Structure formats: C-alpha cells, structure tokens
From TrEMBL:
Record-linked InterPro entries: DUF779
Taxonomic superkingdom: Bacteria
Protein's UniProt name: DUF779 domain-containing protein
One Pfam family, short name: DUF779
Length: 123
C-alpha cells in the first residue's frame, strides 16, 4: 500500500529527541487559525482530534492527525514531515523551545499511487 505520510531523517532525529524528553507523542495539523497549517507535536493525549478528523498514518509509531476540512482539500497529496530551524507561526508545539519547527512538504499522488492508498482512520 502507498503511505500517505513519510518523514525526513531530520524529522526522525527530532522525534527521537522529543520522545526521550516527553514520552509518547502525537501530531495534529490544523486547517487554520492561530497555528495556520503548521503540523503540531504534542504529548500523546495532549490534543484531542475533532469528530471526523483524519489520521493519515504513523510517523515513528506516532499518530499523525489532520483537520477534517484540511484533509478534504489535501486527500490526494502525499505528506513528508520535515524540520526547519527557527520558529513557526506559533508556540504550542513541543519542538518550539528547541528553536525548531515541523514543516510539511506536499506532492500529488501519481495515478498508480491513488489506486493503492493506505486507508485513513476517522475520529
């Protein structure tokens, strides 16, 4: 099956660092408001997805949730979780005090990939 989300080596390293410090994690990407569409990292259970939000896959074993409206817009896109130096648009995510910010790179799925996509889980 075609994965809906992958991650860079830099993201893997930061996730390990955050896991060592905070324990199990979760990710949520909102559709706007104060954090824009920046992916946010929380301690597991530190954020509750809304009804019909979509869990598109796991990153290093941790759930990656997407706002239901954002998923409708990006459902035909592959996500790659990456890390940049600096601060994103907000300060709620666990990596912020480290001077890092998670970022998503998008690309459209090919026709072949669309035929074999991993299913999403809805909350």
């Amino acid at each position: 099956m075609t994965s809906r989300i992958d991650l860079t080596d830099k993201a893997k390293e930061l996730i390990q660092e955050l896991t060592d410090k905070h324990g199990p994690l979760m990710f949520y990407q909102a559709g706007g408001c104060c954090e824009g569409t920046q992916p946010q990292c929380f301690e597991k259970g530190g954020f509750y997805p809304r009804m019909n939000d979509a869990m598109i896959g796991l990153v290093e074993g941790y759930e990656f949730w997407i706002d239901r409206d954002l998923f409708e817009y990006w459902q035909f896109s592959h996500f790659t979780l990456d890390v940049l130096d600096g601060f994103g648009p907000g300060g709620f995510s666990l990596e912020t005090p480290l001077g890092k910010t998670f970022k998503i790179h998008y690309r459209l799925f090919s026709e072949d990939e669309l035929k074999d996509l991993e299913p999403v889980t809805r909350y």
